[in-house]
Amino acid sequence: MHELISGLLGHDRVKAARQHIERTDEATLARQAALSAIPAPTGAEAERAARVAELFREAGLREVRIDEAGNASGWADRDGGSGKGEGAGPPAPVVLSAHLDTVFGPDVDVSVERRGRRLEGPGISDNARGIAALVAVAEAVVTARVRTARPILFAATVGEEGSGDLRGVKYLLNGGKGRGEGGRDHTTPVPAAFIALDGAGMERIVHRALGSRRYHVTFRGPGGHSWAAFGVANPANAVGRATALLADVPTPHAPRTTCAVVRLGGGTGLNSIPQEAWLDLDLRSEDPKALAQLDVTVRAALARATDDENRRRAPATPPLGIEIQLLGDRPSGVTPRTHPLVQAAIAANRILGKDAELASASTDANVPIALGVPAIALGAGGKAGDAHLTSEWYENTEGALGIVRALLVTAAVAEVEM
């Protein structure tokens, strides 16, 4: 793989694409700031998606569209055409993606300020950097007329953060249809490889998908006056019992698996037994079997908390009920470190003079990995900090190098014609 990446660096058109990325570095940075200033809370990404679609068209991609989920996408291929190919059927594409949404709600000011070398603003790195890099690679591939055996789909996805539950990439890879230029229906073929650009940085190569299941658990009872009705089954007590039991749930270190109570609430006043109390849970693991086993254990603990509270209620009073609502289900899995996609990323890092750190995270790459598609997530260069805080910042130190890495890995798996 080292030889392949070295060969790509010497390839005339890949070299021209790299030069384009480096020459337009400041324009990419300005585009990053402009995209970051477009509000894109999870579930409300339409304005940013529309702007990215415009940028895809300006870059020269074909069949640019916004699908029913809200993803913006466009094709590049070896003939500069539609990506559909000829003959018996097109080869499986390579998908290069970045998510559109941020963790910040509609009330957050997402304007960007420059302070010396830093750009500061909510979402400036996660994921305005990834989107800007996505557009930069698309522009470089088209401008340099890089010809590949596999068509490349550039996709900006919705719903990657939090409650979005990866819905954009799930739609993209599970037969989502939409209308592109000319009003034709489109379906995304099963990719040969999937690369997600997420945030800043160069060293990390995410090849292990951190899966999660997120639940909203509600206990309900008759409620009543805290003195007069004392003895009825108390939803707040059940929340406490459940929290204590969940704190003692054994969680393996290999594969790493976690169970966290992340929010709780309920009740209406200081002198009232609540009719309803709730807690939110976040279960995570790198291994799907470990996550499934944890899910069984957690459900048993919740049932025990309910039973324990009901056993203590006064005679002839109504029992407590429980409702478990699934808020999110992010699949887990791994692209083996020996896979050519992972090896291409490692080789690109080393040839560009950077260490390679294999890592686990929850990204858009989770979905293709779970579907059996080789996938990784990469940072898009530069340095960043305060992710998911309103004080988030980005510095463009070796920013272009991160985009060059994305170009090289994409070119390697899309099979540039040598």
Per the CATH scheme, the topology name of the largest domain is Aminopeptidase
Q: What level of helicity do the residues show?
A: 25-40%
Number of helices: 11
In the CATH classification, which architecture of the largest domain applies? 3-Layer(aba) Sandwich
Broad CATH class of the largest domain:
Alpha Beta
* Strand elements, count: 21
> Average pLDDT value?
94
Q: Tell me, briefly, the overall form.
A: elongated
| Poorly predicted spans | 80-86, 176-185
Largest sheet: 9 strands, mixed
Radius of gyration: 24 Å
- Judged by helices, strands and strand pairing, the structural class is alpha+beta
What distance separates the N and C termini? 15 Å
- Strand proportion, as a percent range, falls in 25-35%
What is the quaternary state of this protein? single chain
Count of distinct structural domains: 2
Could you give a short description of this structure?
The protein has 418 residues and is α+β, with helices and mostly antiparallel strands. The protein is built from 11 helices and 21 strands. Helix 1 packs across helix 11, helix 5 crosses helix 11 (399-414) and helix 9 runs antiparallel to helix 11 (399-414).
What does this structure look like?
This protein has 418 residues and is α+β, with helices and mostly antiparallel strands. It folds into two domains: 292 residues, Aminopeptidase (3-Layer(aba) Sandwich); 120 residues, Alpha-Beta Plaits. The protein is 33% helix and 25% strand. It has eleven helices and 21 strands. The strands form five sheets. Strands 1, 2, 3, 6, 9, 10, 17, 18 and 19 form a nine-stranded mixed beta sheet that branches. A four-stranded antiparallel beta sheet has the order 4-5-21-20, with no helix packed on it. It has a four-stranded antiparallel beta sheet with strand order 13-15-11-16, with helices on one face. Strand 7 and strand 8 form a beta hairpin. Helix 2 runs antiparallel to helix 11, helix 4 runs parallel beside helix 5 and helix 5 packs across helix 11. The longest helix is centred in the C-terminal third of the chain and has 24 residues. It is elongated and about 85 Å long. The two termini are 15 Å apart.
